[in-house]
Design the sequence.
């Protein structure tokens, strides 16, 4: 019985989430065409709406810990769920992502992603994409803000292991920016391949920044160590055991 109720509320939550996306797009798209600032306002309003409705519809509370970066930095985040994207975008003032180029054609999401400065890449040609992004930044074409990258390259289920990719270190070196690691336990409550949304406290925590200028090996080892250790602790707080 409890499972049936949770499934019903999860379906209702998902329905209103996509309905809200469509309605907000109708309102914000004309404004965002005129002024890019409204694109940021639109994604912020939407993500905060999702967090709020998740709280009272399915009992999924969310909390941001640590110091939210407001300057131009790389945010290297653990990625377990669509919900950790929602949490990041709800608080970063000018978030932009390196995204799969196929997402450019996603209704609503694709256009707004490009409008806020997300960078579409061919997953098979990441090296060329990184070089192109570096050129855009140096020419002043890329928008300033917080560049979010997922060091493992994709969503990783809680407890699963996947190697950290060197592309994060390449960006860190080429852009010459500080890197702010971020950890999460969001995948425990918003699973990757399930409609079920579980009650509990999803946390996204910004960790102490890694200053620009470290060598690749030191940077990657430190990044993986702090993100994995903190994510494991956050999952442990929520009762997860491997």
Sequence:
């Amino acid at each position: 019985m409890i499972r049936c109720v949770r499934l019903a509320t999860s379906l209702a939550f998902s329905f209103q989430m996509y309905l809200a996306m469509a309605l907000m797009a109708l309102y914000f798209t004309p404004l965002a065409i005129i002024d890019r600032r409204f694109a940021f306002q639109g994604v912020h309003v939407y993500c905060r709406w999702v967090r709020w409705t998740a709280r009272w519809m399915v009992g999924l509370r969310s909390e941001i810990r640590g110091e939210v970066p407001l300057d131009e930095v790389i945010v290297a985040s653990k990625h377990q769920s669509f919900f950790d994207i929602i949490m990041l975008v709800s608080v970063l003032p000018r978030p932009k992502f390196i995204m799969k180029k196929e997402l450019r054609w996603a209704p609503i999401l694709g256009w707004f992603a490009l409008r806020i400065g997300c960078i579409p890449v061919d997953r098979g040609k990441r090296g060329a994409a990184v070089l192109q992004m570096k050129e855009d930044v140096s020419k002043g074409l890329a928008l300033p803000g917080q560049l979010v990258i997922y060091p493992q390259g994709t969503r990783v289920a809680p407890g699963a292991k996947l190697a950290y990719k060197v592309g994060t270190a390449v960006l860190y070196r080429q852009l010459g920016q500080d890197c702010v690691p971020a950890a999460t336990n969001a995948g425990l409550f918003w699973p990757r391949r399930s409609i079920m949304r579980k009650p509990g406290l999803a946390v996204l925590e910004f960790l102490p920044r890694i200053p620009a200028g470290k060598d690749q090996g030191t940077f990657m080892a430190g990044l993986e160590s702090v993100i994995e250790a903190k994510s494991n602790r956050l999952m442990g707080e929520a009762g997860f055991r491997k």
In short: Residues 60-237 form a domain with the Glycerol-3-phosphate (1)-acyltransferase fold (CATH 3.40.1130.10). The chain has a mean pLDDT of 89. The longest strand covers residues 200-206. Residues 2-34 form the longest helix (33 residues).
